[in-house]
Amino acid sequence: MDVAGLVTANPVWVGSSELTMTPAGLAACVDAGAGAVVAKSVNESEAARRQLDIADYAFVSGDRGVRPAGEAHREDGLLNRSGLAQADLDDWLEVLAAAAGHGATRGCPVLGSITLGDPGAAARIAHAMAAAVPAVELNIGAPHGREARAVRQLTEVDAVREAVRIVRSSVDIPLLVKLPGQASDVVALARAARSAGADGIGLVGRYPGFLPDLDGGAVLGSWGAWGSPACLPMSLYWVGKTRQALGPDVPLVGTNGARTADDVLRFLAAGARAVEVVTALWIDGPGVVAELVAGVEAYLATREGGLDAFVGSALAGTRDYADIPPRPSPAWLPYLGSSGQ
């Protein structure tokens, strides 16, 4: 299959995270059978690298309790702080080149990733990465951008267009742009990124989060980034809307909410060509990739037309509110209370 000019074995990708921050972690994700692997992000800022020293992670159960270390469940939410890879660029390029070479022998592209700080610096880093990897993901949707000065989250059309234009001008390999989920119009951001030269669009980054612990403090002792299976419909909203607005020729990569094969399939049905998974691997290890790939392939084998016909298939039956006919028995009746009045 082809996604934004990348030939990949399957639509289950491993997203950028601490798991893809070391040679061993990158190799483990490749060897698990991922369609592609996105390396941990870098940028030009020493402060962004130092931020990793204050990283913290809380897996939150359905009743909003924090799980003890090592006892996370696949359905839990994750509230965390994080930072960027702690490596000089030259050293990191060597890691990327080795990982990309390993991935190439297994049909698994390894992408470099840049979390935006300064667009000009991002362009220089992307240009250097182009000698080591087959594609670059530019993350302009990092939720930590609302709290950390060393990274930025762009939510305005003009800023997105300009940042993508600058980075695009520096590279001639595929450029994927990852957008935030918290913006007034994510579709407009996607259109701006595409017009500025993005080959593919990632939808969507995790959300800012905060959770009081009810003992006079807050989980993590700070604000953080939040993702969970409950975010899946929110992510799929923007995937579906972007697919409708930009059309099937714009490759979309889904992220934020996929923990199971069914979740991956829902992203595909909403219009994504590939899906990045992270937290499920943190909880159950890289072997989760093989589980997800097998589940997706088994389902698609039952569908006429396979993957190509399935991508975006859920949108065919959707209608705007104004086009939905009245229901014969109003659905709100059970919600009037016991009196029925």
TrEMBL record:
It catalyses: 5,6-dihydrothymine + NAD(+) = thymine + NADH + H(+); 5,6-dihydrouracil + NAD(+) = uracil + NADH + H(+). Its EC number is 1.3.1.1. Pathway: Pyrimidine metabolism; UMP biosynthesis via de novo pathway. Residues 75-299 form the Dihydroorotate dehydrogenase catalytic domain. It comes from the Bacteria. It holds the Pfam family DHO_dh. Keywords: Flavoprotein, FMN, Oxidoreductase, Pyrimidine biosynthesis. InterPro entries: Aldolase_TIM, Dihydroorotate_DH_1_2, Dihydroorotate_DH_cat. Its cofactor is FMN. It is an enzyme of class 1 (oxidoreductase). Heterotetramer of 2 PreA and 2 PreT subunits. Involved in pyrimidine base degradation. Catalyzes physiologically the reduction of uracil to 5,6-dihydrouracil (DHU) by using NADH as a specific cosubstrate. It also catalyzes the reverse reaction and the reduction of thymine to 5,6-dihydrothymine (DHT). This is dihydrouracil dehydrogenase (NAD(+)). It comes from Amycolatopsis dongchuanensis.
